[in-house]
Amino acid sequence: MSAAAQPVASDALWESGWSVAGGQITGSAIRELLKLTEQPEFISFAGGLPAPECFPAEEIGLASERVLAAGAARALQYGPTEGYPPLREFLAGLLAARGLALDASQVLVTSGSQQGLDLLGKLLIDIGSTVLVEEPTYVGALQAFRPYQPRFAGVPLDEHGLLPAALETVLAELAAIGRRPAFLSTVATFQNPTGVTLSATRREAVLDIAVRHGLRIVEDDPYGELRYSGEALPPLAALDIARHGEPRHVVYLSTFSKLLAPGLRVGWAAGPAALLQRMALAKQGLDLHTGSLAQAIAFESCRDGLLERQIPRIRRIYGERRDAMLQALELSMPPGVRWTRPEGGMFLWLTLPEGSDASALLARAVEQKVAFVPGPAFFANGGGTNTLRLNFSYAPPARIVEGVERLAQVIGQR
Amino acid sequence: MSAAAQPVASDALWESGWSVAGGQITGSAIRELLKLTEQPEFISFAGGLPAPECFPAEEIGLASERVLAAGAARALQYGPTEGYPPLREFLAGLLAARGLALDASQVLVTSGSQQGLDLLGKLLIDIGSTVLVEEPTYVGALQAFRPYQPRFAGVPLDEHGLLPAALETVLAELAAIGRRPAFLSTVATFQNPTGVTLSATRREAVLDIAVRHGLRIVEDDPYGELRYSGEALPPLAALDIARHGEPRHVVYLSTFSKLLAPGLRVGWAAGPAALLQRMALAKQGLDLHTGSLAQAIAFESCRDGLLERQIPRIRRIYGERRDAMLQALELSMPPGVRWTRPEGGMFLWLTLPEGSDASALLARAVEQKVAFVPGPAFFANGGGTNTLRLNFSYAPPARIVEGVERLAQVIGQR
Known about the structure:
- The structure is a homodimer.
- By secondary structure, chain A is of the alpha/beta class.
- Chain A has 2 domains: 27-48 and 308-412, Alpha-Beta Complex (Aspartate Aminotransferase, domain 1), CATH 3.90.1150; 58-303, Aspartate Aminotransferase, domain 2.
- The first copy, chain A, has helices at residues 2-5, 20-24, 29-36, 57-70, 72-75, 85-97, 112-124, 139-145, 164-176, 200-213, 236-244, 273-287, 292-302, 306-332, 358-367, 397-412, and strands at residues 43-44, 107-110, 130-135, 151-158, 161-162, 183-186, 217-220, 250-255, 267-270, 338-339, 347-351, 370-371, 373-374, 387-391.
- An 8-stranded mixed beta sheet of chain A has the order 2-9-8-7-6-3-4-5, sandwiched between helices.
- The N and C termini of chain A lie far apart (64 Å).
């Protein structure tokens, strides 16, 4: 009673007293950079923005008109947590075309694939659980998982994706101390941040390992359709279903953000029914459901084949930009700088000479009005000091060339 | 190494191995009922759905056209996590009209106010933290907080809202064992599920207690504008700001779901800047940001005064429905049944005679094609067996009368 009777200073009630997770949540380099580089004179390779000239604004406008003229009572109302039923049906068809034989009940609409990561973190991670991540990995996955307080174990990758032998070693080490990881998180195709793609052989090897170790895999596939060269590869989830006749090891996340528009915030999760049901229950506590209007617009936009027109267009535009960036790097980068040569996606990965510091470089690059994301943001446990990520989807080719030249100059001045 | 070499049965990988939180996530009565009562012959008092005839579909359609004609590049792109800047400005003005003198930097756009609850749970609750909730409380708040594994301490309420003396007692008991709660969660105005409103005197008393105990308060206010009788009361958050010249104790959540349309999934949090900044950082990991298109449409719909036209219209329609329900209850309920008489909102609360079981009653009500939510769903720690929630915003008056008669018959048949 006496403690309660003491007056409590109330002007700092929201500056401490965070949960352990809340106390650890801090800003990201990407976040600050996105703000900084909104100024038009900047050439930003930092963001992960699709090119707005690829947005099918007219089609989305017409779809929105149709939805609001004919189905407003439904599109403006609360909807089922699992998603707008016609959209789930459509997504089942889209997944079938990607090699995932699933029905609509195995699809959950999410608020971008980012929400799929948060949901899986919530359902699968306890404090101290081990989560396997690529090294480097998508920074948004780290942000989604960190509040659940896992330990991250990194699996290194090279130009053919994550190294199966390294994965096996990490799993064996964990098994030796009686542990099993919560899951492996991977962007197998046109990885963020490196742009590399897991080879066909390694896909099978990773699934062999998954079977041997009872490993759960979270495959985030926002970029898979954005291939500019080389041969298409089935998602890990498709190979998993092909092996077992049903999804066993892999839950698959994807999104309309790179195919239609990120502003819709419509993504999806697909996989084992038991998992999907529990994800839907958890999602109810998060936001009840993803926007009905956005889902109805996405469905109405796509039902007449918009994606079949969009995808070749995006491939052409981004493919030119990738080529422009690769060529500019070739022409202007000083010796000792290496980079990946992605067959698709939105990013490539630059490695500076040993001993370089990309974060220090950024400060000087910003003075020259060019921006990128320094590599350390993508490493769960430190590292990557001499690496950085470049986006090639946003700026037009001429700006890409100009930006790479600025960047090369800054690097050369070391 | 030997453990790793053992084959692991992989056909049940997603049926166990949940996190502690994930293992506890289960369905809710509301959820199952909403599915059941989608059939048209049902008269459902179960959901919390706004009446679709109140949706400003035409205005939203025109707003959508304007947004996509003039601002598609922005409305379809990724946006700032804090929200679409013109909408944040608009919301600051709306909050000022509700008595909350805040600027746009103290507003965070969320994916419905439900996401505000999840974010606050993430930032403020550790395993075993005490969260104070009204008894009964909004079931969505319980769903949002439960995955963070708090203990709930209930604060009872009567027809004038939560009991300040009971709040003081709970806080004193906690203080005596050296604990302070993470926060108090309250719907002070037209509470869900009971429809009761915290009186003016009690609002001041609750804030006095907050000052004395250094108590943080989460005020969820989705219904405040929906008043059909009685005098308007300022939100707790407004009184907090009036006392201290800035938000000290109260973070305020609200939404467009009941004023425009829930299908937009646009809500907001407002309060202390330090908290709002951290909520924005946490939100990045959840869904990057709330849909840009939905935010732009909400802003474009409202900028010319739509809410000023909407609110009186909704008040008139829902006010008639509340009156129809109260009158029908008066006319048809058997003796011994009591109910609240809300001055606004969407729900009222029925108490059956001692010893009755509302869940058992529901099974029989469903046979008569009438539905409600049994009270126990709204109690964090059990109780409420003989209580139930009725929604009066969705069904037209004649259907309400018919539904109450069906319900009265079922209750009378006990």
